[in-house]
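stage 2 :: seqdesign
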């Protein structure tokens, strides 16, 4: 396997010599992760208690049953490239679909570029535009931390939310290419600057590792566990390693990178495609997420609400969990508890009953811990 290049954050910020569409990473067929601590039968339990809740949030994922959209169209004299509709996989696919979008829009273009939206897709698209040597302006109604992306849990996982019967072969090729690039791009950003870290992840009832599944390579070090190798008090537990992103830190660093490299930010909203076409830039990338439903009339976009309870941080929690109880992701800014996927719910106010269910299911999970080491 060809090793990935070592690239500093300063090189990433200032580069204008990288290939169109993003960093020229070498291809590889398998990737080995820096695995986390060796699994044992003892893990520190999460202290789930209402008195430890520091905030509750509800965010709206831009769910689209036929999968995300990366395509180009012409609106008047402006070439518009769409990059939206990632559902629950926005963090995971961000660098990958942004690279697909820039590969679609940048070849043959001359002049400055506009990016509409300042969530994860807008920021990664804008950075790739800069790395290709173009001046860029982000136009957005809100900036981090006031974006939906800031609410995301931040697990890197290859399993998105889409309806298998509705996706096309071309979309599957886009999906595979996006996963591959995003997987490698996040690996060279691991560290405190961007808040990206590897963690062992315990999962319940998904059948465990499957070498015949091409997506299995994105869950390295995967194996099924015996009941003596974990404390969850149930069978059917497997373990793998993956990356987790502290979304607040990650987005703020990307925004800083953008501005250090000369990028501009303009606060404004758009009501019609004609307003986008009226921008001075002749190439624009639409990264408005759920906003594309109204702005560009994509009625296949639907909100999928996710509600989270965030507990006080516990530095000793160095693993994640997904299963029937929901999910638990530890981050320096708090222990993230979630697990809801509520279609067609537009409210961004957390519902006390849903938060109570999240807390109750995780309290039951961790109160049943047993130590076998």
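stage 2 :: out
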């Amino acid at each position: 396997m060809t090793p990935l290049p070592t690239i500093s954050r300063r090189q990433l910020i200032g580069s204008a010599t990288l290939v169109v569409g993003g960093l020229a990473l070498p291809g590889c067929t398998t990737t080995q992760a820096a695995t986390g601590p060796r699994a044992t039968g003892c893990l520190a339990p999460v202290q789930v208690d209402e008195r430890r809740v520091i905030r509750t949030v509800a965010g709206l994922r831009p769910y689209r049953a036929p999968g995300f959209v990366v395509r180009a169209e012409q609106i008047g004299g402006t070439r518009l490239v769409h990059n939206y509709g990632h559902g629950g996989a926005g963090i995971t696919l961000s660098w990958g679909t942004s690279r697909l979008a820039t590969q679609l829009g940048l070849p043959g273009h001359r002049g400055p570029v506009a990016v509409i939206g300042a969530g994860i897709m807008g920021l990664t698209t804008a950075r790739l535009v800069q790395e290709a040597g173009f001046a860029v302006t982000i136009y957005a109604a809100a900036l981090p931390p006031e974006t939906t992306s800031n609410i995301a849990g931040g697990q890197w996982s290859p399993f998105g939310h889409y309806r298998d019967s509705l996706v096309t072969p071309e979309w599957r090729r886009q999906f595979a290419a996006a996963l591959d690039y995003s997987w490698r791009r996040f690996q060279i950003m691991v560290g405190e600057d961007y808040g990206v870290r590897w963690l062992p992840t315990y999962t319940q009832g998904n059948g465990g590792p499957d070498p015949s599944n091409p997506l299995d390579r994105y869950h390295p070090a995967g194996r099924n566990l015996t009941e003596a190798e974990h404390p969850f008090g149930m069978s059917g537990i497997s373990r793998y390693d993956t990356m987790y992103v502290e979304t607040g830190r990650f987005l703020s660093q990307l925004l800083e990178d953008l501005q250090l490299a000369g990028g501009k930010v303009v606060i404004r909203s758009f009501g019609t495609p004609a307003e986008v076409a009226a921008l001075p830039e002749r190439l624009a990338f639409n990264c408005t997420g759920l906003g594309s439903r109204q702005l560009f009339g994509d009625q296949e976009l639907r909100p999928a609400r996710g509600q989270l309870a965030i507990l006080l941080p516990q530095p000793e929690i160095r693993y994640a969990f997904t299963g029937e109880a929901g999910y638990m992701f530890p981050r320096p800014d708090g222990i993230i508890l979630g697990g809801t996927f509520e279609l067609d719910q537009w409210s961004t106010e957390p519902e006390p009953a849903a938060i109570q269910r999240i807390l109750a299911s995780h309290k039951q999970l961790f109160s049943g811990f047993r130590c076998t080491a």
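stage 3 :: structure notes
- The CA atoms of residues 50 and 356 lie 9 Å apart.
- Residues 1-39 have pLDDT under 50 and may be disordered.
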